[in-house]
């Protein structure tokens, strides 16, 4: 008999709208760092901030549409999974390039390497959402519990 699939529980949820200006990138970084610190998220907060920064920067650069703003949403799911959503009003879907052209084109490549999953989809009303999932390393404290290179000490 198959095991029933239990839904993943949401432990934290936060979202905020931002104007489509270059200053938004810095502001979103500050808000995300503060929020994840308040939540005591067990993952690499610097990685989550960098992922958000790249996604917001792309939205500001490529998703600007007069009269609209971008949205950032963070959700921490059971087990330390962090979902970062950045939504903008332009429906054109992004593409990850394996090779960057000069200084541009590296953002999604960085995000793809830091995130466990990167996806995007059109929104029902307007625009698209780019979603990155990051997983907290909840086993960090258990990697070497004895401080002996993984070998238990004398009994």
Task: Give an overview in words.
By secondary structure, the protein is of the alpha+beta class. It is 28% helix and 25% strand. It has 3 helices and 5 strands; from the N terminus they run E-H-H-E-E-H-E-E. A 5-stranded antiparallel beta sheet has the order 1-2-3-5-4, covered by helices on one side. A hairpin with a 3-residue loop joins strand 2 and strand 3 (81-88). The longest helix has 18 residues, at 45-62. The chain is globular. The termini are far apart. 21% of the residues are buried.
Strand order of the largest sheet: 1-2-3-5-4
List how many beta strands DSSP finds. 5
Number of helices: 3
The end-to-end span amounts to 43 Å
Most strands sheet: 5 strands, antiparallel
Class from secondary-structure proportions = alpha+beta
Mean pLDDT across the residues is 84
Percent of residues in helices? 25-40%
Sequence of secondary-structure elements: EHHEEHEE
Q: What percentage of amino acids are in beta strands?
A: 25-35%
Rg calc: 18 Å
Overall geometry comes to: globular
Low-confidence stretches: 139-155
